[in-house]
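User: I'm putting together notes for a lab meeting next week and I want to include a structural view of one of the chains we've been expressing. I don't have a solved structure, so I'd like a prediction I can at least talk through. The sequence is below, exactly as it appears in our construct file.
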Amino acid sequence: MQPNERVQAVYEGVRPDQVPLMLDLSHWYKKNIRHEFNLSGFTEVEQGLVDLHKRIGAVAYLEMGKFYTLVPADPDIQIKSETKDGVFRTEIKTPFGRLYEERVFNPASFSYGIRKHLLDSPDDFPVVESLMDSLCCEPKWELYHSWCEALGTLAFPYVQLPYSGSGYLISRYMGVEKTVYALMDEPEKVKKVVDRINDCNLRILDAIIDGPFKTLFISDNYDSNVQTPDFFDRYVRDYYSEVARRLHAAGKHLAVHVDGESRGVLGKLAECGVDCADALTPAPMFALTPEQMRQAAGPELILSGGIPAGVFGPGASEAEFIECVKNWLDTRDDSYRLLMAAGDQVPPEARFERIAMLPELVGKYGKF
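Assistant: Thanks for the context. Below is the predicted structure for the 368-residue chain, given as structure tokens.
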């Protein structure tokens, strides 16, 4: 089987010849190739990143830029983003007020940390609601096709929806502390803005659902240390379930980017009809072993991930790295709904030689 055929087989419930290998190498690439970047993402195929994936032999699935644009229908609503002197700034102006965000480039981590969140309190919610009511989606499938052509059998692009309402607040634009205060002080206002964001996302989904992609991606960075079971049931469950329902009716699949503590959430994702939990990080970085993740998820939810960032980097020995890979691949005996992957988990300090070991390790320990 070709590399991307293995991924498609897992999504379709067919056992491949071996566990598929997928990597998001964009962060490593930007740091080690010294690729100047901002948070707007790639606007065209980045040939150097394509060549890196081909050199390693891993399927590319994330960080390929935006396959659609979002434009306010209301001329009185303006969105402006720019990167200048290492600061990424976003400003939103609506008849209900103005919002402003700042993120500052850190050369050590080669990332942009948030210095000023977009939202400060529920008083800002009417601005977000007016923006969400106005956004219109314009697909750009030519970029999708260009990446597929460049990557060939290593292409399996995920098309990404914006953050869900809960992810928009807690993981991205308001932060944990301010969101928790808002949940305690103004729960109905929080529910209203979350629903408004989710309604906007469902309109975006309807606009793109007939596109060429096979899997849709929600990058909520879910972490059960922060987002409790009650929080999931009130603010997340119905939305994920509806997105999954619409995708499945169109013959497509849903992946949710966890990238935090997965204890307590895997079974809930399966209940919602989510097909894949991406960026799963096992012990020692988080609580669950690969075996415990499979037990919690059940046999049908695709587990995608497997290597903690600390094990990828110089803090772990080569033997520890190999053992981590083997432990993840061993769960294939319980369910072939498994991807050896790394989304956001290949740290920029990882040695290339360690990344390049993965195809051989998966071929050796991941056969069916």
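A couple of points you could mention at the meeting. The CA atoms of residues 161 and 201 lie 7 Å apart. The chain has one domain: 3-71+135-365.

User: Perfect, that's what I needed.
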